[in-house]
């Protein structure tokens, strides 16, 4: 809940500044690679959670 209130408290200009800082830190070429890795990690997490829920249903 605290994290959500912090995220909502950040205005649009703060998000722009955070985005620019990320671009400066990682560079424009590295960001797509980071997002691709993040996306594949999320996909693997979802697949693993679906597999776990199927295992639980089989045990019942």
From TrEMBL:
Q: How does it sit in the membrane?
A: Single-pass membrane protein
- One GO cellular component term noted in the UniProt record for this chain: TAT protein transport complex
Subcellular location per the Swiss-Prot or TrEMBL entry? Cell membrane
Task: Enumerate the UniProt keywords alphabetically.
Answer: Cell membrane, Membrane, Protein transport, Translocation, Transmembrane, Transmembrane helix, Transport
Instruction: Name the InterPro entries on file.
Output: TatA/B/E, TatA/E
**Which GO MF terms does the UniProt record name?**
protein transmembrane transporter activity
Which residue ranges traverse the bilayer? 6-26
Q: Which GO terms describe its biological process?
A: protein transport by the Tat complex
Matching entries from Gene3D superfamilies are given as:
1.20.5.3310
Its principal location? membrane
The free-text function statement in the UniProt record for this protein reads: Part of the twin-arginine translocation (Tat) system that transports large folded proteins containing a characteristic twin-arginine motif in their signal peptide across membranes. TatA could form the protein-conducting channel of the Tat system.
HAMAP family associated with the record: TatA_E
On assembly, the entry states: Forms a complex with TatC.
Provide the family line.
Belongs to the TatA/E family.
Record's protein name: Sec-independent protein translocase protein TatA
Organism listed in the record:
Winogradskyella wandonensis
